[in-house]
Amino acid sequence: MINIALGGALLALAIGATGAQAAETAICYNCPPEWADWAGQIKAIKQATGVVVPPDDKNSGQALAAIAAEKANPVADVTYLGVTFGIQAAKQGLVQPYKPAHWDDIPAGLKDPDGKWFAIHSGTMGFMVNVAALHGKPVPKSWADLLKPEYKGMIGYLDPASAFVGYVGAVAVNRALGGTLDNFTPAIDWFKKLQANQPIVPKQTAYARVLSGEIPILLDYDFDAYRAKYSDGANVAFVIPAEGTITVPYVMAMVANAPDPANAHKVLDFVLSDKGQALWANAYLRPVRASAISPEAQKKFLPASDYARAGTVDYQKMADVERAFSDRYAKEVH
Question: What is the pLDDT of residues 101-128, one digit of tens each?
């Protein structure tokens, strides 16, 4: 009898604890602990708000598909997505408006006007350069520099016909050289000229190949270069090209008819708070609120004057024209 009573008490305690935890949980789709220090962010959210955010390893496409499948009975409260997926979620009615604290600090091009999605951090396309692997050659400063014969065999970029980061590079050089999302001729012409330098064009991520020196110069995001420099101790520089580039944001949104809207609000407010934004900065991503970067983290980024050369584009249109660009690149550059 004693054992039964004790068991019942323990069961009641377990149920009570589970109920209390459930009441303070916000389900986030695509919050993987190994990416962008979501592990640290999740821990900080719990410490600051009491809300538990279980880690979730979905990618943007999987998260969007799950939210769509669950539309009639939503499971997730919030989601984290690449910007084009955020736009798609809004168009499909899968997310609802919410303007979190610090909404006004987010640049107009990095948020849905109604609050259906908003950027929390971003990556800026540029040159990730293994300085030692240049063997004394100057660090290139512009898209034009990469066409110089002295860099023959030293330049890499992911295939823009198959890899999103490669496509981001194509959109960046195209915009920098006067093209638009309706006219990719400047980018196509640049890639054609670059072929004389025998570029290395992998299909998959080439981070390790830059660190080894196999690819001295890679078109890549700033956060990869900073990670190489500050976490891996490599002699790597990041260059924002003189002619300009683009920044690609990652966004968050509140799921339509979220089961726990109050906790969803707490999470979305926190990721834009001074502390939340500083955590992104310490993971080498560019927080959307530049003012929230700690002095220590700020030292690891290039100056704001360099980032002024990084612009935004119509991300929905960027997604819409990707197939046409890929087809043209495959036909004219390969």
Answer: 999 999 888 899 999 999 999 899 999 9
**How many contiguous H segments (helices) and E segments (strands) does the chain have?**
14, 10
Cα–Cα distances (Å) from 120 to 255, 268, 285, 319, in that order, read 16, 9, 10, 20
What pTM, to 2 d.p., does this model score?
A: 0.71
**Residue 246: closest CA among 169, 191, 319, 302:** 169
Instruction: Give tens-digit pLDDT for 163-176.
Output: 778 888 999 999 99
Convert the pLDDT of each residue in 221-245 to its tens digit. 898 899 889 988 999 999 999 999 9
Residues near 288 by Cβ (< 8 Å), separated by ≥ 6?
105, 106, 107, 110, 118, 119, 120, 121, 122, 249, 272, 277
Question: Cα 76 to the chain's mean position, in Å?
Answer: 20
Q: Please name every residue paired with 180 in a beta bridge, in sequence order, or none if there are none.
A: 183
78: enclosing H helix or E strand? strand 78-82
Give tens-digit pLDDT for 288-318: 998 888 888 888 889 989 999 999 899 889 9
Query: Would the pLDDT of 6 be above 60?
Result: no
Nearest to 163 by CA among 332, 326, 334: 326
As a whole number of angstroms, the distance between CA 28 and CA 310 comes to 30
How far apart are the C-alpha atoms of 24 and 46, rounded to whole Å?
Answer: 9
- For residue 254, the one-letter residue type is M
Please state the separation of Cα 124 from the chain's center in Å: 9
* Best CA proximity match to 60, nearest among 30, 34, 28: 30
Pick from 269, 220, 306: nearest CA to 298: 306
Mean pLDDT value across the chain: 89
Most confidently modeled range among 31-35, 148-152, 297-301: 148-152
β-pair partners for 127? 219, 239
Are the C-beta atoms of residues 22 and 16 closer than 8 Å to each other?
A: no
Q: What single-letter DSSP state applies at residue 85?
A: H
